[in-house]
Amino acid sequence: MTMRLHTLIFSVLFLMTTQSFAAGGFRQLDPVAPPDLALKALTGEIRNLNDYKGKVILVNFWATWCPPCRREMPSMQRLKEKMSGRSFVILGVDSAEQREEVEEFLKLVKIDFPILLDPDTAATRRWKVFALPTSFLVDRKGKVRYSISGPTEWDEGEAVQIIESLLQEK
Amino acid sequence: MNRLARITNSLLLLVFSSALLAEEVEVSLPSGNVIAYTRYTAAGNDLLLWFASERGLGKAESRAALELSERGVEVWLFDLASALFLPQTPSSLDGIQASDMQRLLERASATGARLCVYAPSRAAVPVLRGLAGRPDINARVLLMHPNFYSRVDALDGADYLSFGSLKSVDVLVLQPRRSAATPWVENQVEALRKTGANTALKMLERLREGFWVREDATDYEINEGRNLAEHMLNWMKGTP
Questions:
Q1: What residue of B is the nearest CA neighbor of A2?
Q2: What gap in Å lies between CA A51 and CA A150, rounded to an integer?
Q3: What's the ipTM?
Q4: What pLDDT was estimated at residue A14?
Q5: A115 vs B4, residue with greater confidence
Q6: Which residues of B touch A8 (CB under 8 A)?
Q7: CB crowding B87-120: b at 16 or more within 10 Å, else e
Q8: pLDDT of A51-89, one tens digit each?
Q9: What chain B residue is nearest to A12 in terms of C-alpha separation?
Q10: Helix residue ranges, H only, B46-97
């Protein structure tokens, strides 16, 4: 019984620590130009952050082995559907994995926003991502405005409020 | 013999052998605290000081300690967060006094055995602080996915804690490949080298942090967790 309780405590703490360093909530940043992001998408073409100028962009760094990343993925898909027709895009950046691993995972979780591959972690390092998932919100002027380390429910609450406020900016 | 009887016998044997090889030892520390650790005795000349991470000890760690002692490595198993009634957070271990760690290291060094120290995650901090203050103590240090950041900010960067000189220390950093820290591990290795520590890196493929205790462990991770003692022997020797 004690050991089961111990195991449960371990598990909860592990879920917390994979999110590491920024316990909950969005961090508002001084608007800053994003590091370069031009990566091959799962579909084969190169996607560049600059291609989405004028839109609000959610850049999400994740990996298939990361349970909190997997957990928040469906809420990002729901967010994408909720924002359909608006100036909003999601770019998922898979960190340090091969195409086959990502494709295997996407057989289980249906998403249709672009997934970019960062197998050598060059983009992960440029964006100084120390925990997974880590996400950034880029405004319509192309500046990074918010970051969050750890998962969130993207289609409700604070996440939607922030994205709406960024969409309303000219 | 039926299956139940075999299992019962195995459990009794495990309990009996654990009782023979393990004892609780109390030690008074300069801070005034008295802590207990588990000593798994062995006849060999190797002594492993095994510190639990900030998350405490897992079943796999006690099992590995017992197996190591059966294979001739004495193990002193410490769960400092629990022994000092500290919350299970990384910053808790930062508060452990270097003099307390040095008392434990002195005690180990006084046995005359070849000394190795194992510290996962944030346990690296008190271990390295303790060793930095005792250059006369030679030890091999195994750091499992060490966390000695002093600051981490996405998009901005990270800083590392400084420890002073670690010239008398050989460090092997053990980094599970499937970790958000992996892209940064070379920076950690470099930070350790700047202290003078002779530092090497071993990447643990297909594994995640805390693989020996994860509830969502893959079959491979479960198997590697069961082989922790065997791995530890290799890491202590510096063989792959």
A1: B59
A2: 27
A3: 0.87
A4: 43
A5: A115
A6: 215
A7: ebebebbeebbbebbbbbbeebbeeebebbbbbb
A8: 999 999 999 999 999 999 999 999 999 999 999 999 999
A9: B215
A10: 59-70, 80-83, 90-94
| Mean per-residue pLDDT over chain B, rounded | 92
The residue whose two tokens read 């590491």 is: A20
CA-nearest residue to A13 within chain B is B55
CA pair distance A38, A49, nearest whole angstrom:
6
CB of B63 within 8 Å of a chain A CB? The answer is no
Name chain A contacts of B158, Cβ cutoff 8 Å.
128, 130
Residue A105's CB is within 10 A of a number of other CB atoms, namely: 20
pLDDT the model gives residue B17:
56
CB of B182 within 8 Å of any CB in chain A? Answer: yes
Residue B83: pLDDT over 60: yes
Which H/E stretch holds residue B150? Answer: strand B149-153
Q: Identify the band that residue A38 occupies on the pLDDT scale cut at 50, 70 and 90.
A: very high
**Residue B82 in 3-state DSSP?**
helix
Question: Å from B238 to nearest chain A CA?
Answer: 27
- Interchain contact, A14 vs B210, CB within 8 Å: yes
**CA dihedral of residues B130, B135, B140, B142 (deg, nearest 10):** 30
Pair of tokens at residue B199: 């530092």
Q: Alpha helix (H) ranges present in A20-142?
A: 67-82, 99-106, 122-126
pLDDT above 70 for A17:
no
Q: Do A149 and B208 touch (CB under 8 A)?
A: no
Asked if A148 and A27 touch (Cβ cutoff 8 Å), the reply is yes
- Strands B114-120 and B139-144 turn out to be parallel
Mean pLDDT lowest among A68-77, B28-37, B83-92, B188-197: B83-92
Residue B145 backbone zone (phi > 0: left; psi -120 to 50: alpha; other: beta): left
> What is the C-alpha separation between B208 and B175, in angstroms, rounded?
9
The amino acid at A46: I
